Amino acid sequence: MPPANQDEWVDAKTESPSSPESRLHTRMSMIKSLQGFSEKRWLEFELVYRPLLVFFLKKKSVPPDAIDDVLQESLISIMKGIERYERVPGKSFRGWLRTITQRRAADYFRSAPPEKRGVQDYLNVAVSPEQRNPNELAEEEQAMQEVQARAMELVRTQTKEQTWTMFWKSTMEQVPTAEIAAEFGVSTAAVRVAKQRVTKRLKEAMFEA
């Protein structure tokens, strides 16, 4: 299925590789699960990435009462475009998502009644990635933290309590593996396996590596 706008495939790849981005980079095996149009994976994607997509729209001055509609248009464009998405070294999946939401925001302002659009609002949509200020970049990182928190909660609800607790103690609390193994009456290998399984699932939920 072709992208809603062919220009998205050009503009999404123009983001400067030197621009500050998340330490996480897209894992193509996870993207391919979206390309397979799995309903479960799309629901997970929307649940996890909604804060970031909404952030992009708000930064482009989309009014609160139009956010949901423009968000749905953005998700439709992402669904149509993901089939042809290809990872390019130095270019991020997040940047690709940003480009699509910005284009849907631009579409909104082009079609909105005059009283709902202003010159400055329309100009805000056209700002290039290179013009983003440090405050906006910091706010975007905050939005990404919410994305990560949602991914953590999603995985927690899908993981056995003991497995999750061993992962949490090992990764977040930095409790020694031997101590965790003794607490739960398992081998140190079992603790490492639990950590690896949860970590892998988190990467899948984040569509990142």
Question: What is the ordering of alpha helices and beta strands?
Answer: HHHHHHHHHH
What is the CATH homologous superfamily assignment of the largest domain? Answer: RNA polymerase sigma factor, region 2, helix turn helix motif
Largest β sheet strand count, sense and barrel closure: none
Give the strand tally.
0
Q: Determine and state the CATH class of the largest domain.
A: Mainly Alpha
The N- and C-terminal alpha carbons lie at a distance of: 26 Å
Task: Give the structural class.
Answer: mainly alpha
How large a portion of the residues is in β-strands, by DSSP E?
Answer: under 5%
Rough shape?
elongated
Helix residue percentage:
55-70%
CATH topology of the largest domain: Rna Polymerase Sigma Factor, Chain: A
Number of helices: 10
Gross CATH architecture of the largest domain: Orthogonal Bundle
